[in-house]
């Protein structure tokens, strides 16, 4: 390359074009930045959250006070010899809805529970559909966690609900739910 014949303009024109493009890009980028003030909406949502929390606390107080009163009445009626009524098991309707023969309190009917998990639950004292329907999901997960990593991957979130359908004899609803929710996922 012959630098003697190069004019200063060969260097100056690309430098000026680059500087102008840089300034224009900066100005266009800066004009697109606008700050939006969401503080009013945030305040409304915080107020709504506080109101809902107060309502929840009030409901929890009502439930706990009513539960304590009902617990005393239930204990008195149980002490008086009142038998706890159990829902009857209808094997024929269970077979008609599910397509297989079902034994009463067979936990394997619940989608996601197999023979090993059923054994773990029975060892933990959950032997019936009623007991499983009343068990908190956290307790079900603790039972699975005790079985090791192999069982920790199971999701027991729907198991109490499915067990309640079994206990109450809602076989058609259970079959429909299990068809719609493969692998027991909610």
Notes on the structure:
The structure is a single chain. The chain has two domains: 37-85; 91-184, no CATH class. 65% of the residues lie in helices and 0% in strands. Helix 3 (91-98) runs parallel beside helix 9 (171-180). With 186 residues, it is mainly α. It has helices spanning 9-31, 39-79, 91-98, 115-123, 129-134, 137-146, 149-152, 159-167, 171-180. It starts with 8 loop residues before the first helix and ends in a 6-residue tail after the last helix. Residues 74-84 have low confidence and may be disordered. The chain has nine helices and no strands.
Give a topology summary.
Elements: H1 9-31, H2 39-79, H3 91-98, H4 115-123, H5 129-134, H6 137-146, H7 149-152, H8 159-167, H9 171-180
Concise summary:
The chain is built from nine helices and no strands.
Name the overall outline: elongated
C-alpha-based Rg, rounded: 34 Å
Q: Give the ordered list of helices and strands.
A: HHHHHHHHH
In DSSP terms, counting alpha (H) and pi (I) runs of 4 or more, how many helices? 9
- Count of DSSP strands: 0
> Helicity, in percent?
55-70%
Task: Write a concise keyword list for the protein shown above.
186 residues, mainly alpha, 2 domains, 0% strand
């Amino acid at each position: 390359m012959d630098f003697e014949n190069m004019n200063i303009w060969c260097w100056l024109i690309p430098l000026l074009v680059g500087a102008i493009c840089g300034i224009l890009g900066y100005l266009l980028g800066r004009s697109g930045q606008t700050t939006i003030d969401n503080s009013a909406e945030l305040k409304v949502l915080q107020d709504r959250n506080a109101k809902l929390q107060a309502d929840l606390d009030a409901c929890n107080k009502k439930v706990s006070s009513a539960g304590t009163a009902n617990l005393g009445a239930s204990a008195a009626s149980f002490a008086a010899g009142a038998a706890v009524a159990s829902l009857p098991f209808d094997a024929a309707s269970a077979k008609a809805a599910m397509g297989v023969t079902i034994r009463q309190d067979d936990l394997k009917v619940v989608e996601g529970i197999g023979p090993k998990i059923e054994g773990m639950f029975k060892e933990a004292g959950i032997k019936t559909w009623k007991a499983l329907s009343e068990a908190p999901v956290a307790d079900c997960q603790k039972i699975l966690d005790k079985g090791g990593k192999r069982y920790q991957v199971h999701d027991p979130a729907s198991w109490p609900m499915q067990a309640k359908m079994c206990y109450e004899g809602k076989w058609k609803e259970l079959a429909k739910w299990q068809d719609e929710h493969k692998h027991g996922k909610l």
